[in-house]
């Protein structure tokens, strides 16, 4: 009997596996998709772990969203500003759909992001 790879599992099973892996690596489980997007934003900023303002945390989640959606060319990296923060431009329209569809799209791309590391 062959076992299925995690890539062959439904999206929610892959997501749960990713959260479990992040918990093992970080010692703390991200609470939700926004928490994972924040981690990606911090990684892409490349300035290490430090205290961020509420506004910076929102900016980091936006960076996370842009980075993962750039894997499918929805966004394109534009430049780093004088403070080293990455900036992206919208490359093509995001697919229309409800919040569940948008969340599934983001989760799929987040999983792909970590698979490529």
Describe the overall structure.
With 117 residues, the protein is mainly alpha-helical. It has one domain. It is 53% helix and 9% strand. The protein is built from four helices and two strands. The chain has helices spanning 11-26, 33-45, 54-69, 99-115; strands at 75-80, 86-90. Strands 1-2 form a two-stranded antiparallel sheet. Helix 1 (11-26) packs across helix 4, helix 2 (33-45) packs across helix 3 and helix 3 packs across helix 4 (99-115). It is globular and about 40 Å long. 18% of the residues are buried. The model has no long low-confidence stretch (mean pLDDT 93).
Quick overview:
By secondary structure, the chain is mostly helical.
Please tell me what the overall shape is.
globular
Oligomeric form = single chain
Q: How many strand units?
A: 2
- Tell me the helix content: 40-55%
- SS content category: mainly alpha
Task: Write the SSE topology.
Elements: H1 11-26, H2 33-45, H3 54-69, E1 75-80, E2 86-90, H4 99-115
Antiparallel strand pairs: 1-2
Comma- or semicolon-separated keywords:
117 residues; mainly alpha; 53% helix
């Amino acid at each position: 009997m062959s076992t299925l790879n995690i890539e062959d599992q439904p999206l929610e099973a892959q997501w749960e596996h990713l959260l479990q892996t992040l918990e093992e690596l970080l010692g703390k489980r991200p609470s939700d998709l926004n928490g994972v997007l924040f981690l990606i934003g911090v990684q892409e900023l490349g300035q290490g772990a430090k205290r961020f303002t509420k506004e910076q945390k929102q900016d980091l989640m936006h960076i996370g969203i842009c980075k993962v959606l750039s894997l499918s060319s929805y966004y394109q990296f534009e430049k780093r500003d004088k403070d080293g923060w990455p900036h992206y431009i919208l490359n093509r329209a995001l697919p229309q759909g409800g919040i569940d569809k948008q969340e599934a799209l983001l989760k799929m791309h987040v999983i792909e992001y970590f698979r490529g590391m």
